[in-house]
Every structure is written in C-alpha cells, then in structure tokens.
Amino acid sequence: MKDNLFTPTYFDSFHCLMGSCPDSCCKAGWEIPIDDETIEKLRAYPTLEIDRNIKSGTDGDVVLKTNHCGICPYLTHDGLCEMYLESGMMGDVCAKHPRFFEEYYTGDEIAFTEAGISVSCPEAARIVLSATKSDYDSLFDGQTEDELLNFLLSARAKAFDLTPMHLIAYGELLQEEIDFGTLELPDCELPDSEPIDLLSLCGFISEKTEILTSEWRELLENCEKGSHNHESQSLLCYLIFRFFLKAVNTEDILTECKLIVALYELCTLGDDFTETVRLVSKELEHNDFNLDLLRDFLADS
C-alpha cells in the first residue's frame, strides 16, 4: 500500500453509480462541507454562483446550502453533479465519499492509515455486505512504537473470528488487561455475553439523538427484529474494522465492543436488512454527536 495506507481488499472495487444511484448521498440530509481551496477555484465559474450556495455549518465549517429536503443545490435532475460537470472539480469531502480514512499515531508521527468504504452508500453496502473475513487480512498487522496500539491490533485480529454473543465478554477481558497494564491477550474460552437490551437501546436513541429520517424513527419505535436471513459475519467484520481501534484514544475497549454489538443489533430491525444497515450508518455512524451519546449510554449499562 502507498504511504502506509492499508485497506480491505474490496476497497478499490468501489465505483460511484452517479446518476444510477438509487439513493444519492447528495440528498441524504447531511451538511456537505466544502473546502476553501475548492471554493476559491469555483469562483472562476460564475454560473455556479458558489458564494450564493454556501453558508456556515453547525461546526463552523463552510457547507453547501441544501434545500428544505436536504438536497444539494448542485444535484441535477438526472442525478449528476452540476459543479463537477461545469468545473471538473468538487469539494474534498464529496470527492472522497463514501471512503473514510483513519490515521493511527505513535507520538506525533503517523504509524499507518486505514481506509474503507461506508455502508451508508448503496453500492458500498452491496460490496461490504458480500465481503468475507479474509477481505480484512490485508489490514495493518505489524508492530508500532505504541504498546496499546499493538495490543489492540492483535486483539482485533482475533475479534474478526468472534460472534456478537462473545464480543462483549472479549471486551471485558481486554479491558482488564488495559486497566492493569498487563496487555496480554486472553487465552480462555469466552462465555456468552449478556444480550443488548434492544428495547431500552431503541428508546434511548429515539429520545436523545438527532433523527434524520422518519423511516429511522419508525424502526426505533417498532423495535422489532426482522425475519430475514443475512450474512451477519460480513456486517460484524465491517463494524469491528470501523470501531475497534478507536479504543486507542480512550483506553476503553469494552465500550467500543458494546458499541459494535449495539450497532449490529440495530441493523437487524425491520424486514429490509440492507436498508436498515444503511439507515444505521446514516443516522449513527456518520454523526459523532449521536455516537458519543450512544457510547455514554452503553458505558453506563
């Protein structure tokens, strides 16, 4: 990989469906940040009226002004990007989505970077939910100068083989190792974890978090698992890849394991597994405020 960048093997198979996308990210209702460099270049294209179509976002970033339905002003009727068609460029966030990048440090230096594709996107979801555990064998598996990061990397490699029933119990044992500073992988049979209280979880999310869509609120209020069959290990591997190593910043691997299982359980709501996966991603995975609230709730449970 270039510049210490590591990805699942499916990463490069993603290609945007553009006008054929059944659920464009350009109308997801998110704030769409746009970087200053792109704004300055777009001012050379008067028909785009870039200054009329930007505003300050909730985090102080410059974002595009979406309409009352959350649709980007540059989305054309045939599902293409007027900004790109006119100028050949788009903002950095738009150009990368649904790709995400996580940098891991030792001191002030980047030890390595991992990248993936988010299941909020229909095409990315199709790819990720048909992946296997072996698709994650290409992730970073070396040693760094950070002892905790090395411990979590080794622990994650084993976590890919676990079921949701065992993952929280695994997190409890890992947390003991972190708390006592021993950092040795547990070598014992894992008991079944206590199941997530899905009803309480849905009630908390419905009452306390930001809700984007009525579809998501309806799933939370009904709080009923679907009868569908799905490739559960593909989803679990994705969530482990997405969240497990975040514990290097908090030293709280138990809460990250609870978060992974909670998101997994939420994805079983309703009868359309793939669409629920995408809703969970849109509503929680891409909202740091909601994720932090959910972590606090799980840490106390």
Radius of gyration: 20 Å
Q: If strands are numbered along the chain, what order do they take across the biggest sheet?
A: 1-5-4
Query: Low-confidence segments, ≥5 residues, pLDDT <50?
Result: none
How would you classify the helix and strand content by structural class? mainly alpha
Number of strands: 5
Q: Provide the succession of SSEs.
A: EHEEHHEEHHHHHHHHHH
Give the N-terminus to C-terminus distance in angstroms: 40 Å
Mean pLDDT: 95
* Percent of residues in β-strands: 5-15%
> What is the count of helical runs?
13
Oligomer: single chain
Broad shape: globular
Helix content: 40-55%
Largest sheet: 3 strands, mixed
Can you offer a commentary on this structure?
There is one protein chain. With 301 residues, this protein is mainly α. It has 13 helices and 5 strands. β2 (54-56) and β3 form a beta hairpin. α6 (164-180) runs antiparallel to α11, α7 (198-208) packs across α13 (288-299) and α9 runs antiparallel to α11 (253-266). The chain starts with a strand and ends with a helix.
In short:
This protein has 301 residues and is mainly α. It contains 13 helices and five strands.
Describe the secondary structure blueprint for this structure.
Elements: E1 5-6, H1 36-42, E2 54-56, E3 62-64, H2 82-87, H3 92-96, E4 99-106, E5 109-117, H4 122-128, H5 147-159, H6 164-180, H7 198-208, H8 214-222, H9 232-243, H10 247-250, H11 253-266, H12 273-285, H13 288-299
Parallel strand pairs: 1-5
Antiparallel strand pairs: 2-3, 4-5
Keywords:
5 strands, single chain, 13 helices, three-stranded mixed β-sheet
